[in-house]
Amino acid sequence: MDPVTAPAPSLQVSGLAYAYPDGHQALFGVDLTVARGERVALLGPNGAGKTTLVLHLNGILAGGEGTVSVAGLPVGKAHLAEVRRRVGIVFQDPDDQLFMPTVREDVAFGPAAAGLRGAELEARVAGALEQVGMAGYADRPPHHLSFGQRRRVAVATVLAMEPEILVLDEPSSNLDPASRRELADILRSLDVTVLMVTHDLPYALELCPRSVVLSGGVIAADGRTQDLLCDEELMSAHRLELPFGFDPRSVTVPSL
């Protein structure tokens, strides 16, 4: 493809450094590019800066050094509403995301706030619920659903905004094996860029051909997930541990 007409990457982070008001330096010049449609796992120990990085993607945090762009759009005050539509964050606890009386109203909330009405709004809601296998639950109260079902509805609330990037915070946490597999199938089926923050290394290997290790506020490694998980020295240095008996070399994974 002609580079002049090539689409901008979903995410471009250049030289991002950030210190909190108390003086704690959380990021030290992070560079990260994620192409449209990539699924990338963001790995690292607690306190590595993962949350700080994610909060820069939609402008919740700002004021540091460096730049962040989403689909070529600089993250800043001038484009904040559009950036926040394009960067959909699914929280670790779906109850932080679901607050309306019914599933339909939760999924409709974002698009309605953006001005969508009538048949177009209904179609957007129905499509998002269909994508996550929850089309038959539109009239149910979210608190009557299982945890795994609530997580899928939380994903639908973000998909209803037609985002450029789906950011998932520990998507497999507290899921039973069946719900874990169902969510993985859904995430593989989506035509959207995925950035998955997780400590669940087998889940990262299953879903994300590429991983980035963030440690001490810098990117310590960036490459094929399987290669990184097989690097025992890298894993040990950044407090990343595989489950007992799990061998990443034994898993057949998609190429980058």
UniProtKB/TrEMBL annotation:
Family: Belongs to the ABC transporter superfamily.
InterPro entries: AAA+_ATPase, ABC_transporter-like_ATP-bd, ABC_transporter-like_CS, ABC_transpr_CbiO/EcfA_su, Co_trans_ATP-bd, ECF_ABC_transporter_ATP-bd, P-loop_NTPase
Superkingdom: Bacteria
Membrane topology: Peripheral membrane protein
Every ABC transporter domain range: 11-241
Entry keyword set: ATP-binding, Cell membrane, Membrane, Nucleotide-binding, Translocase, Transport
A Gene Ontology molecular function term of the record: ATP binding
The protein's name in its UniProt record: ABC transporter ATP-binding protein
CDD domains: ABC_cobalt_CbiO_domain1
